[in-house]
Q: What sequence folds into this?
């Protein structure tokens, strides 16, 4: 699928939103990477830089209360869905003010107010959880869509295939978004998947399998809109493969050019395919000026500075809180607070 | 009051939960089968529709995880595993996901899923159709585990589990399905974590769960005829287990046998024996004894099966051993 400029869903506002979301993810990740390099952040961070078009393209097709499930590389999805930047940063610092109260870190983010009910790094684990949230929506007739983001590596797990079948037979409002960035840790996809075109798994499970250029935010968005339409219309799940590339290493800020069978070549090939400049160019063609971009950059950088300051100043959880929350105490769940009444 | 069997009590709990709480649904293998669930879910699909009573593919992992995901998203699912052995394929959603969820996110979200696991053993079914893995799940922080031994508890603990708000493994044993007693018609909960004294006695405490409670009661009757007055404690919940009640009983009798239908090593009996030994050694007047399965897979041959499963006699032997022990 290509974005040809004639897509009637496109307008200048949407392009600005796409740009803003991608830019926000990019500079947040760069800041966090610097803080890791500086030794200030210690929890393992998996950077999303290079893949921004997928999170932005998909999440901008969703409503606030739609569910998003994701894995270890989740900062981008969290921000694209509207999660609070300062809460995420404080969580990465392990502070009590973090979105998971310092229990989670980078790999366990929560933004229940925007449909992120918890991210976890156990590979592929959130794929069937997303199916379950879709089942909940179907039973409640609440019209929500449940999106599962996962990597190419996760598709080698049984969870993935069981989930596609389950969502298909129950016709659930689920969208499976595979971000195929060519690598699973140090392994190139050719080394560990016998079929590198992951969208073909859709066929195996009787659901649409769509492939798009994951660095083309408009193409991603267009495909996501159709998958959302299908889901809300009760037509069942869609598998959407987005071919993309992560610029940094598997974990941490380095680029890992010494891993895999061809990482160095891949990096050289993909860096010029940066997903952000094409959107800037479109906006410039539509009359935007450099000053417009500068203003967005300044605002976001100021917000980042504040978020870092807030995180630094926030207290750590107290040692006596160690055993809190092992069991649910009966407090109102933030997830339940956003459920719709059940239609009979 | 009318009498219900254990299996009828389980079915009634499902029926009342589905009627009274729109968040409840049931999913798992065999739900539309006339026989798969031993009658415990009979015709619920006809009564409540197949949207809420979902028979599933043989995908234990995804089905359990889907129930966990739905629970996190505000539902109260009961996921059914006709055999605990099959449920082993769903270990990730149970141990990594459901049990951790509340803690991971600082108590702001939780996974109120009930995972029903059936112990279905004997009958020469062998090692992969016989397992009782309660000890494994008791080990996991964040997960509760209940094991009803009577029809009353079979109903009340299922309702209590659904209302609890935590992930709860509900383990029922098909050897108990025919047991019968008075069961109230109304909907009621048995609170999790509360044990009960089934028989009072002063010479020795026998702590048991699930089917082993009936063995303990038989053993206590026999022992009583021989002048040994045994107290029987039914744990009902093995995680969290009712420490105060068990400790009170042992403080009174000074002697303890723990009987559990799982394996010995790191099992239910081991945990309770360890807690008593560590925390109230001074109250003991004799060594503790564990009655469990031997640390071996379940055999097929009837002759070996007979040797494998502990009985009332195994408990009597253990009690006699303790009473004879020189301290
Ligand atoms: C069940 C499980 N196995 C292994 C890992 C270790 N692990 C973490 S991320 C990862 C690779 C994931 O690759 P992919 O799904 O392609 O996502 P990417 O990192 O490329 O975004 C692995 C193997 C894990 N977290 N969980
Ligand atoms: Mg990958």
A:
């Amino acid at each position: 699928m290509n974005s040809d400029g004639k897509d009637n869903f496109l307008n200048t506002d949407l392009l600005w939103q796409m740009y803003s979301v991608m830019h926000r993810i990019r500079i947040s990740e760069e800041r966090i990477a610097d803080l890791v390099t500086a030794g200030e952040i210690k929890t393992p961070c998996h950077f999303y830089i290079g893949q921004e078009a997928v999170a932005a393209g998909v999440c901008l097709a969703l409503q606030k209360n739609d569910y998003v499930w994701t894995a270890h590389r989740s900062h981008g999805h969290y921000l694209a869905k509207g999660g609070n930047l300062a809460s995420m940063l404080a969580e990465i610092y392990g502070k009590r003010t973090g979105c998971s109260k310092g229990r989670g870190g980078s790999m366990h983010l929560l933004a229940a107010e925007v449909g992120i009910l918890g991210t976890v790094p156990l590979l592929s684990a959130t794929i069937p959880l997303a199916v379950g949230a879709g089942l909940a929506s179907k039973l409640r007739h609440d019209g929500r869509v449940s999106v599962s983001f996962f990597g190419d590596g996760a598709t080698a797990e049984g969870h993935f295939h069981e989930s596609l079948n389950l969502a298909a037979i129950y016709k659930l409002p689920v969208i499976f978004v595979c971000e195929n960035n060519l690598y699973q840790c140090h392994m190139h996809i050719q080394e560990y998947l016998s079929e590198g075109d992951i969208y073909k798994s859709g066929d195996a499970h009787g659901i649409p399998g769509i492939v798009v250029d994951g660095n083309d935010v408009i193409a991603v968005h267009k495909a996501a809109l159709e998958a959302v339409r299908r889901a809300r219309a009760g037509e069942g799940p869609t598998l959407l493969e987005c071919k993309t590339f992560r610029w940094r290493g598997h974990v941490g800020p380095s680029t890992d050019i010494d891993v895999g069978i061809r990482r160095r070549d891949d990096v050289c090939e993909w860096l010029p395919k940066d997903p952000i400049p094409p959107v800037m160019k479109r906006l410039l063609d539509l009359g935007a000026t450099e000053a417009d971009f500068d203003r967005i950059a300044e605002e976001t950088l100021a917000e980042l500075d504040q978020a870092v300051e807030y995180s630094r100043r926030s207290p750590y959880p107290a040692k006596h809180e160690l055993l809190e929350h092992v069991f649910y105490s009966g407090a109102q769940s933030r997830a339940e607070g956003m459920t719709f009444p059940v239609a009979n | 009051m009318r009498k219900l069997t254990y299996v009828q009590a389980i079915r009634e709990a499902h029926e009342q939960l589905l009627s009274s709480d729109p968040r409840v649904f049931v999913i798992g293998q065999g739900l539309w089968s006339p026989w798969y669930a031993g009658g415990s879910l009979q015709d619920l699909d006809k009564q409540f529709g197949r949207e809420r009573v979902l028979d599933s593919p043989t995908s234990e992992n995804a089905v359990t995880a889907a129930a966990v995901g739905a629970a996190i998203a505000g539902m109260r699912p009961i996921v059914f595993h006709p055999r605990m052995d099959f449920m082993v394929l769903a270990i990730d959603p149970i141990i990594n996901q459901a049990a951790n969820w509340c803690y991971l996110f600082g108590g702001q979200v939780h996974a109120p899923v009930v995972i029903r696991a059936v112990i279905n053993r004997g009958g020469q079914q062998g090692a992969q159709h016989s397992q009782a893995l309660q000890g494994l799940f008791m080990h996991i922080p964040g997960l509760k585990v209940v094991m009803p031994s009577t029809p009353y508890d079979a109903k009340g603990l299922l309702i209590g589990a659904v209302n609890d708000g935590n992930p709860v493994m509900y383990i029922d044993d098909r050897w108990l399905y025919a047991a019968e007693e008075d069961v109230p018609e109304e909907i009621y909960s048995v609170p999790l974590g509360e044990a009960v004294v089934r028989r009072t006695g002063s010479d020795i405490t026998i702590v048991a769960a699930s089917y082993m409670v009936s063995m303990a009661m038989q053993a206590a009757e026999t022992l009583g005829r021989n002048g040994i007055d045994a107290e029987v404690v039914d744990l009902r919940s093995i995680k969290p287990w009712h420490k105060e009640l068990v400790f009170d009983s042992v403080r009174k009798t000074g002697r303890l046998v723990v009987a559990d239908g799982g394996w010995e090593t790191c099992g239910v009996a081991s945990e309770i024996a360890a807690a008593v030994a560590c925390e109230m050694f001074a109250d003991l007047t004799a060594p503790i004894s564990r009655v469990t399965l031997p640390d071996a897979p379940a055999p097929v041959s009837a002759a070996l099966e007979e040797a494998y499963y502990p009985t009332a006699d195994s408990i009597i032997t253990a009690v006699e051993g303790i009473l004879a022990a020189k301290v």
About this structure: The longest strand of chain A covers residues 174-180.
